[in-house]
Design goal:
0% strand; 8 helices; 205 residues; 2 domains; single chain; mainly alpha; elongated; Rna Polymerase Sigma Factor, Chain: A; Arc Repressor Mutant, subunit A
Length: 205
Amino acid sequence: MAPCDTDWVVLLSTTGPGHEAALAKLHGLLLKAVRHQVLQMYGRLPTIGVVRVDELINQAADEAMVAVLGKLSTFQGRSKFSTWAYKFGILYAAVEVRRSMWRHWDVDLASVPEQPGHGLVPEEEAEGAELSVAIREGLEKALTPHQRRVLIALLIDDVPIDVLADRLGTSRNALYKTLHDARGRLRRYLTQAGFLGEPTSRVIP
C-alpha cells in the first residue's frame, strides 16, 4: 500500500522507520513513469538496442529520484504526491531520450545555411542575399567563438538546450545568457551595417 500524501513527504524526508520502503516505492513509481514515456518516444530514437533502452530508463529514473527528493519542500498538495512525482519521471525520460538522439551530434561552425528566396522579385532577392552576407559576417566578426557556437546550435540546428548544456558542460541559464548576449551583438552589428533600424521604445535581445 502506497503512503498517503503527507506520509510520503515525512517518510522521504526523515531516516526513521519506513524511509527505505518509501524510497523503494518512489523509485518504482518513477521507473513506471520513465518506462511509459520512453516507450512512447521510442519510435524517435535511433536503433540503440534493448540493453541501451533499459540503461536509459534506469538513468532517467535515478535522476528523477534525485530531483524529487531535492524538491520535497516545494510539494504543496495541489495534486496527489504520486501524480506530482510522476511528472518528474516523464520530464527526465524526455531529457534522456533527447540526449540519446543527439549523442553523436556535432555543431557545424563552418557555415550557416542559406535561405533561398521563394517568389521574390530580383530586388528583394538581392536585398536578401546582402542580408545573408551581413549575417554571416556578423556571426564571424561580432561574436566570440563560444557565442557563435551556441547561437548556431540553438537557433539554426535546433539542438535542445539541455542537450547542448550537457555536451558543453554548462547550465541552461548560462546558455540563455550567452544566447542573449550573442543576439544583442548581432543586432548591433546589423544595425550599424544599415540592415536594422535603431531600437526605440524597447531593446530586442
